[in-house]
Amino acid sequence: MELMYSSTRNDQVKMTASQAILKGLADDGGLFVPERIPALSVSLDELAKMSYQETAYVVMKEFFTDFTEEELKDCINKAYDSKFDTEEIAPLVEAEGAYYLELFHGSTIAFKDMALSILPHLLITSARKNHVKNDIVILTATSGDTGKAALAGFADVEGTKIIVFYPKNGVSPIQEKQMVTQKGDNTFVVGIKGNFDQAQTGVKQMFNDKELAAQMDAAGYQFSSANSINIGRLVPQVVYYVYAYAKLYANGVIAKDELVNVVVPTGNFGNILAAFYAKNMGLPIGKLICASNENKVLYDFFSTGTYDKNRDFILTSSPSMDILISSNLERLIYRIAGNDAKKNAELMASLSGNGKYEITAEMKAQLADFYGNYTSEQETAAVIKKLYEDTGYIIDTHTAVASGVYDKYKKETGDTETKAIIASTASPFKFTRSVMNAIDAKYDKMSDFELVDELSKLGNVAVPQAIEDIRSAAVLHDTVCEVEEMPEVVKKFLGVK
To answer: What pTM did the predictor assign?
Structure first.
């Protein structure tokens, strides 16, 4: 049966999966959601024997029902290949009783690779299916990781161009170097004088600009998105939770149908929403533990039922989570509002107008599966140091936020028996200075690439190819603009008058 998609702000809009992937964002500013979350159609015993690619197919075919088996398997096989440096694609590492799901073995050493390796293939297939003549222009804002992963995925893909905006002083030096050295005639990287929320808002405004869309169309272009607002980004993220659970079962770590908790360092809410979708497909997940850094807008929301972005924006050592507008939360709000697009649209209008909204008591009662907390900068650093000293395992700052919040969850609830999967979202090599300073302040005197080599020795792990590639790479993108100049910069790159 074909699964259709509608907008979170207008449920009269109905689209196929490929149409929703192509559009990225609905015309009314809403996000596309499936009319229902499908159930897994294979048993746990079958899943336990599957490779990552096979698992990807059995999960994605339930959501992307207008793709043929051949089309979907072709996308999956092109995505999850030798660009990942481990055969498992997403290995699990046990440390101090928790299971770290390493999602950073792709070409840009962050979890965004898991979805952005496949999105270009899904998009191009969707364009063919829908007889699109225009070139697809991927327009995206990044808090550090999405940008590079999207650039790597789309570089030199025929029929596409990609433009990435990032906060000029709001990403790590390694993250910035990865982006500004990106090759590919169809790639363009722009630093903005502002923060991630301003970059994301600027991108959304361009998506909603009808006049700009007409100018683009006349020039043979149409916008699409690589941010996690695109359903083609979200669904592939569901896969690794299913895969991780099946692997724990296959390895005898958990019994059949035993509940596990999932801990996710959270900024834009896409990664934890994918775990929520996996749970609703039938995966035995207990608590969804939402971990925030000092920008704790989500912790406050889960505590109070009020989402309020009216606060200081804090630059932290986990910059991919330095976000005050968690776009993907809208998909959850729509669901707990009883799939009521009108109610959701009212709440989002309040967020847009007043910077906040409050959910009802009935809606808040539906969030019982979620637990929210946060770690301070000091706590995050202490987690990295302690885990390294106790086990020799080195994690990045974002994963440390999750680990620290998991410790708080156990102390607060007494739930120490339920096994936990911690989403390890980036390689420590991506945030070497913060990671090494956490272990010992003496490292701060070293240069970024001296730190890379020191981290390799300390953790007894090879330097990832993604880091080796940028050691001596030339800067190819040096454009910086004001937030309000973003549309003009786009038009200039595309040669649109």
So the answer is: 0.92
Residue 168 annotated as catalytic: no
Place of tokens 């100049």: 485
pLDDT, tens only, 317-332? 999 899 999 999 999 9
Q: Give the separation between CA 376 and CA 401, rounded to whole angstroms.
A: 8
Q: Please name the amino acid found at residue 465.
A: Q
Residue with tokens 């809410």: 269
Cα separation, 184 vs 467, in Å, equals 18
pLDDT per position as a tens digit, 211-225: 999 999 999 999 988
Structure tokens at 323: 């976000």
Residue-range domains of the chain with CATH: 92-107+232-462 (3.40.50.1100)
Per the listing, tokens 């209008």 go with 349
Other Cβ atoms within 10 Å of 447 Cβ, number: 10
According to DSSP, residue 426 is labeled: B
State how far the Cα of 236 lies from the Cα of 226, in Å rounded to an integer. 13
What is the enclosing helix (H) or strand (E) of 147? helix 145-154
Phi, psi (rounded to 5 degrees) for 45: -65, -35
* Tokens coding 421: 């999967």
Of 23, 73, 83, 112, which residue is the catalytic one?
112
Q: From the CB of residue 82, how many other CB atoms can be counted at a distance below 10 Å?
A: 7
